[in-house]
Write a structure and sequence with these properties.
Oligomer: single chain
Length: 142
């Protein structure tokens, strides 16, 4: 048998291990068949937790991403890249949503101020017309 065919790379430490291995003899982590080939962030046991944290708390997701990227295992590095990407994406989305919301609130306040100003102007015009009519009535009496 050819030994190359029986070996694979550990997705965590990138060391050669037997294809049938359940646990890596170098790093001690559990090796699953789904990890074979190029490491993918979605294969990491913390994938969903890191994804949810990165969406809900992008700043924490950035920190998690940086921590995982500096780790030595390829699968951890992929998870770190994923956390950074999700955090940046949701930071941008949150920023856009907040900007639109704030601009909408400012426009609404400006609109209310304009309506109030228009109402006051109409009151001044009515008062002026009333005073002018009174003055005309007094002038007609004399």
């Amino acid at each position: 048998m050819n030994e190359q065919n029986e070996m694979m790379k550990c997705p965590f430490c990138a060391e050669d291990i037997k294809a049938e291995a359940v646990v890596c003899k170098h790093c001690g982590r559990e090796v699953k068949k789904s990890y074979e080939g190029k490491p993918k962030a979605s294969k990491h046991e913390s994938y969903w937790l890191v994804t949810v944290v990165s969406i809900l708390l992008p700043f924490i997701g950035l920190i998690i991403g940086i921590v995982y990227i500096v780790k030595q295992y390829p699968l951890d590095k992929k998870l770190g890249e994923h956390a950074l990407a999700v955090s940046v994406l949701f930071s941008i989305i949150t920023g856009v949503v907040l900007t639109v919301w704030i601009q909408n609130a400012a426009l609404e306040a400006q609109n209310e101020a304009m309506i109030e100003s228009h109402r006051q102007s109409q009151e001044y015009v009515r008062e002026f017309e009333r005073q002018a009519e009174e003055a005309m009535n007094r002038a007609n009496q004399y």
